[in-house]
Amino acid sequence: MSIFQIAWKSLSQRSLASFLTGLSVALGVMLMVAVMILYGVIASTFQQSSIGYDLVVGPKGSPLQLVLSSIYRVSPPIENLPFRFYKDLQKDPRVEQAIPIALGDTTEEGSFPIVGTVPEYFSIPFANNREFAVRGTFLRKPFDAVIGAKVAATNGWKEGSQFRMIHGGADTGHVHDEKFTVVGILAPTGTPNDRSVFVNLDGFYQIQGHDKPFDEAIKREREFYGLAPLDPEVLAEEVRKLEKRYGGHDHHNHAPGEEHFHDVPMIQKEVTAILVTTKTLMAAGLMEGEFKKGFKAQATNPIRPMNQLLTDILGNIRVLLMVLTGLIIVVSGVGIFVSIYSSLQERRREIAIMRALGARRETIFGIIITESLLLCLGGGVAGLILGHLLVLAAAPVVTARTGILINGFAFQAMEWLLLPALAILGVIVGYIPAVSAYRTDVASNLNPS
Amino acid sequence: MSLILNQIRKAYVTPTGAEQVILDIPAFSLDQGEQVALVGTSGSGKTTLLNVAAGITTPDSGTVTVGGVEITRMLEPVRDRFRSERIGYVFQTFNLLGAFTALENVLLGMSFSSQPANRHLAIELLGRVGLGDRLHYRPSQLSVGQQQRVSVARALAKTPRLLLADEPTANVDGPNQQAILELMQTTCRENNVTLLLVTHTSEVASQFSRVERLANFNQAATSTSTPYSMGVN
Asked: ipTM strictly over 0.90?
């Protein structure tokens, strides 16, 4: 019989105690695995959804807020940029594509964020090599809307469904009269796109309040470009000229909900951010540096602030959780130590018999260490399986609530370290009992006490 | 394989701190293939003598030579290996492991030598002690006599050159007692194995051509009683 078989037999003899100590290890490992997988999913989700763009350009302010608002849509936008700025950026020879987005409104039903954008938004992969897929069509007409999978599931919207939006978020309570029509439903992406509603930017500007009054638009644009404010008379003259050119427009001449279209002058348009892909990575770096020097806007690599967030905040939470679950495993290890050590007293005779049969002290030492290893590694393997099963069971709930797609079978690199770490723990907690067994006197323990 | 005990002395310290000499044997020996019954009263040091002969207990002084090899000079791991390969031991209290079946107990006896455990031999020996249909019974499922028979099979399974048996028939009924005795004697005879068997039963001792009374050669023996009247060679 091998040392393994003998150790297994000894554990089987104390099956309940062995099961419970192994289970305690399994539960600790299960929690640790769940933490690792969920953190991995969160990290990859944050990085994946922003990987399609090289730069996010927005008003000066916090880069993290810019990324959170424009990519993840979980933070209010900083401010707006003039539409002219977007057009200028588009002409930059280093830029491959510049996608404007306008944020701030939400759906009346479900409070999902509205993203005013251009049809080209869907031509850029939402993650590495992952293209958008849609049931229906992408944006074509001004009042078309494409909705994310979670929006469709939550609101029960289908192609042809119509909806209205609340201005500036649900707090203001002002519901725009204009209605958008759903023309496409995106396949699930596991990104914030799933809970976003995309409307054509042309239609977005048609909504009352989204085109700034001429005087305010002139003031904001001059302020943005760092130009001195105009004298009141000059400003009034400028406004008059624009009104004459564009003829003015009054939304109140239309019936509520009526779809109508008119050309909005560039000066009245603003965008919240611009998602940029550059022709080369070096160009992205150069542009980011140039924007830092200027005072108008900022450009940031969308991955960097998220990595900082993950490292500085989520990373610390993860470390805390890992330490806690690690402590659970260590406590389980102490349980193994207590279990084996206390059982030794009643096993002295058993050990003495094996020694009398010719087992060397080292063999006895090996049997006890093997028992400890079996409990640690057996519990560890069970914990790995349970951890993945836990994530599998939780995945539908998490996906339904957050839109984040979770793969319960995803294997984190750190999981490879778990079993060697548990093996070391097994040797450590088994060492003292093994030494005690090693020292068992044969003659005095051979006869029943 | 011969057994020679020379100037063996073994003493224990009592709880009162006094030294109690258990063995004080100037000389005692068995020739290769010889079968000897050792008799003595309770507490006379029979089990200690077997433990010393097996290398389980180290004497305070003196030498133990088994098959020409002085085991008292061996390092402990070497002595353990020597015992696992050359010496069989049938314990008075059977000393079976409760978690193991009868077959596993026998296999365990073979597991600590350099040779791989011979499952076929283990099954055959259990059959010869009448336990062929109890291979997978645990000790708690066997009677006292059956447990002792497993213990005998375990000692014989590793084909020892010296077999030490501590009252192997003490808990076995008449017919089984005879069967066990015959099995040990026959196996030892066939394989030229030296047998030293401790007993307090005259029926058992009478089946040996050489019977030694411990009190006769152990100067530390305190026994004054002589339970058997038999010829001592």
From this structure: no
